Amino acid sequence: MKVYLSGEIHTDWRERIESGADGLGVTFSAPVTDHAASDDCGVAIMGPEDKKFWHDRKGASLNAIRTRMGIESADVVVVRFGDQYKQWNAAFDAGYAAALGKSLIILHGPDHAHALKEVDAAANAVCETPEQVVDCLRYVLTGKLPG
Amino acid sequence: MKVYLSGEIHTDWRERIESGADGLGVTFSAPVTDHAASDDCGVAIMGPEDKKFWHDRKGASLNAIRTRMGIESADVVVVRFGDQYKQWNAAFDAGYAAALGKSLIILHGPDHAHALKEVDAAANAVCETPEQVVDCLRYVLTGKLPG
Amino acid sequence: MKVYLSGEIHTDWRERIESGADGLGVTFSAPVTDHAASDDCGVAIMGPEDKKFWHDRKGASLNAIRTRMGIESADVVVVRFGDQYKQWNAAFDAGYAAALGKSLIILHGPDHAHALKEVDAAANAVCETPEQVVDCLRYVLTGKLPG
Amino acid sequence: MKVYLSGEIHTDWRERIESGADGLGVTFSAPVTDHAASDDCGVAIMGPEDKKFWHDRKGASLNAIRTRMGIESADVVVVRFGDQYKQWNAAFDAGYAAALGKSLIILHGPDHAHALKEVDAAANAVCETPEQVVDCLRYVLTGKLPG
Amino acid sequence: MKVYLSGEIHTDWRERIESGADGLGVTFSAPVTDHAASDDCGVAIMGPEDKKFWHDRKGASLNAIRTRMGIESADVVVVRFGDQYKQWNAAFDAGYAAALGKSLIILHGPDHAHALKEVDAAANAVCETPEQVVDCLRYVLTGKLPG
Amino acid sequence: MKVYLSGEIHTDWRERIESGADGLGVTFSAPVTDHAASDDCGVAIMGPEDKKFWHDRKGASLNAIRTRMGIESADVVVVRFGDQYKQWNAAFDAGYAAALGKSLIILHGPDHAHALKEVDAAANAVCETPEQVVDCLRYVLTGKLPG
Amino acid sequence: MKVYLSGEIHTDWRERIESGADGLGVTFSAPVTDHAASDDCGVAIMGPEDKKFWHDRKGASLNAIRTRMGIESADVVVVRFGDQYKQWNAAFDAGYAAALGKSLIILHGPDHAHALKEVDAAANAVCETPEQVVDCLRYVLTGKLPG
Amino acid sequence: MKVYLSGEIHTDWRERIESGADGLGVTFSAPVTDHAASDDCGVAIMGPEDKKFWHDRKGASLNAIRTRMGIESADVVVVRFGDQYKQWNAAFDAGYAAALGKSLIILHGPDHAHALKEVDAAANAVCETPEQVVDCLRYVLTGKLPG
What we know:
Helix content of chain A: 40-55%
Largest interface: A-D, 38 and 38 residues
Radius of gyration of chain A: 16 Å
Number of strands of chain A: 5
CATH superfamily of the domain at 2-33 and 73-142 in chain A: Response regulator
CATH topology of the domain at 2-33 and 73-142 in chain A: Rossmann fold
Shape of chain A: globular
Organism (chains A, B, C, D, E, F, G, H): Palleronia salina
Protein name (chains A, B, C, D, E, F, G, H): YtoQ family protein
Pfam families (chains A, B, C, D, E, F, G, H): Nuc_deoxyri_tr3
Strand content of chain A: 5-15%
Oligomer: homooctamer
CATH class of the domain at 2-33 and 73-142 in chain A: Alpha Beta
């Protein structure tokens, strides 16, 4: 099973899912989570821009190669919404994955439930912790429930 | 060849097909056939629900990850209708597979033939025993007929 | 908006939806609801069969032209499950529509909720009465809520 | 040309686009912009829920019928991000439209440019005012530039 | 309903279907049935060829515009196999339509049944007379059986 | 029939095709053929750019809305290669249309035949004059040959 | 590269292609070429039929599982037309493959060129001998020409 | 990751990308870059043609098997435009890849920027040197920036 881990990049949720799923035979992919590299990749490789808008555009378009490849090859897309920032790219990825008919697992705290209701409604599972995501993946692959 | 075995979970038909097809190089997948786990997986992982409707919804949505992955990656989808229960999920899977253009083998006793006529009409083969399904798979893969 | 009304053919639920949606600009389609004609159409047009199985096959394949055309051109597919019969063709239609990414409204009484949990989980709305279906369609088209 | 107007529902940007595009032969569609109706439609039609989560789910799933129909039939999807709220459903719609290969016009103020860089990178045009969107639509349809 | 009438061009079967279906609201399309024009269209418009092979290629490629448009826009594709000639283009059209998921009605005499078994197996209906095809179309559209 | 006329914008070939096809019921679409407007549309509407590269990008992305809409809705795409300039956008449109399975007619003088061999090989017809294109369209629609 | 070898089953053309392509890394698939098994597989496995029509149907539907799997997974479909029989299934396969956008190589003697002009027009290459097909495959994979 | 290298065949840009990407796990494919073989492959294998037009057609159609296979299986398509020739096949490939939703990297010198503006607008990255393409691939796969 291939799983793409989209969204928030400031906590260790990806590591917790990947280590929890150890032994299940899941192949994980994810965006570049080095914030500075992700922001500057376009100009670092293809030359500087005076305007921040095009600086951002060059980077976002390059990152989209990785994102698109990750989502399109995934069986399951997990999207994490954290407590900070707008995280519109996370919601964009969720919509992109939904339109492709991918199975979606959304991961967020209860405070965001109302704001994410349209996103959650497109999902197969809504989890509050990375460990619940691991339990979902283990159940889907092995039929085993936790505990 | 990848074969998804959908439908009835109370008899040993899957085992009979899998053991009969031993050596043919077929990779089988199937839904979780532990009835209790299948019913309760959603709440066991993501927390309890007071209403049975949402208890069921959480489980069915989670199970759909496995079902969708199994059907979409399959070359052939076998759907078994047994003697009991409504088995609407089996017919749903058959319709889902048909719309994706998957090859379908339907497995049921003669008593259900009239009720299943629309489903049978979408199928490549209608069998009465698991052994006939094995004979179909062997023929499709090797060109060898039984006997 | 185009709506296909699939499923149970022994009560007046289609008429109640169509009259309730009068003035909304909805175009409805449905299977042939004359039970005898639907069963016998194949042999009546293309000649008799000795075996009931092929009698049924000829009819089901012919009816599939209408069903497929109705579902594929629909924006919304409503599937009604009644109290009697196996109704596997209704569940097949629901699966077919779901795989095509159609919006689904499922209509059934509370007694069938558990047996239909996989079908309901693929739906945008689960209603208990034809009037609720009408309210859904009116809301989707006009934004107006009942009452 | 069919244009779907997604996103922020608290200012008059839709009206400004629709009136500005008067005479161009554009057919506009949009989500239900009555905030209360949009939040409560599910329970108002299909019955109350004790939990806010399922109250929201019922509404979001029903609204998705309209959203999906609007985006899938559109030639161009315009997505507006305002100054307030998370607006994850707007970004979700943008991702959904992008995956379907729809032409995208994103409308937002310069303050949001960095946070929206992935969304903007998927767009054909990024505008700051509704009038610029109108100018884009007019140019695309008639070849005429403003002024 | 849109119906494409493919295949044999030497008898009046198309006229019999079109006149029989009068009043049903069916829009028919078909290949160019003027044999000489169909064979020579390419060189007549784009200049002569010394080799018969390229003479044929120019015509066949041009005719393919009409064939493709007819099949792709059709709800139902009727393919007629007559008593003479190889008629490989008819079988090619049937395969093309089947791969696109079109409803198929095959029209041929009983003598060809064995040679057409793979084609018939992909069809919704196999008829022996144009009148049976009309009866199929009428039933599919109105639910009325003949007689 | 819908026909998109892509490519060279400095001669009157579009007018000759459109007037020649008068009465055939063809709906034509085309890119904006005002060269200056096409080059400057992006900055004229969304504000100036210092760099020519982004000036061009803004315009090309906006023009792509019209191009994509024209090609995707077309039954036939005609692509004209003239004697001057690189005309890479014309070849790009041809490739885009080919990948979508559109019928292609390529229009160019004999001097370009070798350089266009890959493009011609994807086409249904290769014409040297606009009048030949008209003859192709008339034949495809009516079965009538010129003369 | 995966190549499906469709069509005539009475000469050794498949063996000649497979042995000629030895070492190129091509995986070949083909229909069941045991004529008797192919005709009788349906009834041999699923029980006899009184009518030849349904005897044939059962077999053809079962064989279609193998055919569909072979064509859909192929990069190149080779279709051979021999000197005898109607071979409508070969032309059907060619049409099916063409509609899926598969690369096609057609193999036939010059006598059939006119009758196959529509099929040839959909092909990437038209060969007269199995050795030419091998040369095509070798060139496509290695860039080496014969001699 | 699979990368198809389309376009100019007279400089060593492919070798520079392939050697630069050594160790990244990228599988590269490309057209036949032996100009004479590419031009003559059709007639060398399938027999000579008097007319240059059909000589070219036979070769271009055969080469299209390789091109199509390369583009359709690629995650990323790199298209190089050199200083000479029309290179319409390069632009055709770019359009073909864009319509299939492939990630695109365009490689050309600054002199061609204006003529390629429509092609560049469909790309994820526009590079001036093969080394920049390598840096893009390395970043997309590993998240590492150069230097």
